[in-house]
Amino acid sequence: MTLAVLALVSVVAGASPPAAPKRIAVLMVPMDRGAEAATVRLETYMNEALEQLPGLQVKKSEEAFGLPPDEEAEASLKRAETGYGESRLAFDARETADAERKLRATLKEYTKAAGAMKECGHLCDAIAMYASTLQERGDVDEAKIALVDLIALAPTFALDSKRFTQELIMLRSQVATGRSGQMRGSLAVGSRPPGARVYLDGELQGYTPTTLQTLQVGKHLVRLERPGFQVLGLLAEVTPEDTSVEPELTATAAYKSYEAMLGKISGEVAKDKGGSALAAVAKTLGVDRGIVGLVKQINEAGGTELNVGFYELKTGKRLASKRQVFQGDEYGQLKSEIGRLVNALVNYEAAEKSAKSADPLESRHGTEEWNSEDRGNHSAPDKKKKAKDPLDGVNGTEEW
Fold first, then answer.
1. Is residue 388 part of a domain?
2. What's the rounded Cα separation, in Å, for the pair 184 and 117?
3. For residue 200, what are the β-bridge partners?
4. Residue 209 and residue 149 in one domain
5. Please, how many CA atoms are within 13 Å of residue 274, restricted to the half-sphere of its CB?
6. End-of-domain residue from the set 245, 260, 290
7. 3-state DSSP call for residue 230?
8. 312 forms bridges with which residues in the sheet?
9. Is residue 178 part of a domain?
């Protein structure tokens, strides 16, 4: 028993350590402005597909090029949170005039802090307190406007009956069921460059440019995130008329360096072989392999053509490649199509190795001799039998 245990320990000790996961990144290169809007979506779907495969360590564009916060918005949020605390103390002490003054300043800071906010948070409570102070001093119309914003930002926000008057709770119900509460509008959200993820009141809605339909009128928290650019946020005012926003995003230094190399990278991918540009990307990003694609827009409906390769980036060796056309994402089919494409690219190498086996029948599919005289008997033909048979060499289809 002891000898068996020692033998097992020695085998385990001598076993080779598990292979380190391959570090991989996805890079989509837009070949025109229309395709630029599709790159982040394609990269996102490809990264999600790669994360499902074993033996791979995915480095996303956010890690590679950065997704820095808006520092000015972060500073405003700190001031707004401080102002919220002071405003609440004054409000709960029923110091209405002082609370209203502090709430006005606090709400201004929250407006500038939109880029640092992922959800309504204390902003909603500040709006509710502000509406209450307005109502108490008799400005009901202004209080209704504040409540419209509150309902738009957080439809389920509940007014605490211990802190807010019954009159305000009734006024909120009146606004929610009245004409103002039923009005809807649309918000067209763009960005420069396009392709940013769009979050509305904390929920992912799509990628710029996109139009958000049938939104409750009032203020909405819009947040834009594009890897390689600073996060941007704003409180957008939705009205019954069509509203649009298209802010310019600020690129990081890492993305600017990468952008300067896009011409060389696209040239190497177009020639179906790697080179110095892809090797430089591998070194900079600290990855071994990469899925690199050239994206072209083929129609205004969102159709794109993708010429993509799977590379050993450091050596420039192309392991697999594919050209595919995607006809938009109207029915949400793009994610599954991208998943199949990624699996085909990454598993191509393994499938190729598996096909090269010692099987003597390898590469023979059983139909090679169908049109010859041989029907499976590989021995030498009997010339006498062949000469005597009047139908030898005739298969009955000569006159067809």
1. no
2. 24
3. 203, 222
4. no
5. 23
6. 245
7. coil
8. 289, 317
9. yes
Same domain? For 229 and 169 the reply is no
Same domain for 223 and 302, yes or no, is no
The low-confidence residues of the chain, meaning pLDDT below 70, are 1-19, 273-274, 349-400
pLDDT tens readout for residues 150-206: 999 999 999 999 999 999 999 999 999 998 888 999 999 999 999 999 999 989 999
CA–CA dist 400, 396 (Å, integer): 9
CA 355 from chain center: how many Å? Answer: 35
Q: Does pTM surpass 0.85? A: no
Nearest 5°: the CA angle 175, 202, 101 is: 55
Q: Among residues 276, 281, 232, 274, which one has the least CA distance to residue 255?
A: 281
Q: What is the domain-level CATH number for residue 209?
A: 2.60.40.10
Assess contact for 204 and 179: CB atoms under 8 A: no
What's the rounded Cα separation, in Å, for the pair 211 and 219?
16
Omega before residue 209 within 30° of 0, cis: yes
The token pair at 379 is 């021995």
Domain tally for the chain? 3
145 burial (CB, 10 Å; 0-12 / 13-18 / 19+) is middle
Whether the Cβ atoms of residue 80 and residue 121 lie closer than 8 Å to each other: no
Task: Read off the tokens for 322.
Answer: 């594919």
Query: Could you tell me if 233 and 221 are in contact, meaning their C-beta atoms sit under 8 angstroms apart?
Result: yes
pLDDT in tens, 41-56: 999 999 999 999 999 9
Buried b (16+ CB within 10 A) or exposed e, 34-71: bbbbbbbbbbbbbbebbeeeeeeebbbbeebbbbeebe
Torsions phi, psi for 214 (to 5 deg): 45, 50
Q: DSSP states of 134-175 as a string?
A: HHHTT-HHHHHHHHHHHHHH-TTPPPPTTTS-HHHHHHHHHH
Q: What is the DSSP string of 343-388?
A: HHHHHHHHHHHHHS---TTTT--S-TTTTSS-SS--SPP-HHHHHH
pLDDT at 9: 47
Q: What Rg, from alpha-carbon coordinates, does the chain have?
A: 33
Integer Cα distance of 158 and 138 in angstroms: 22
**Domain span holding position 330:** 20-66+252-350
- Which residues are 203's β-sheet partners? 200
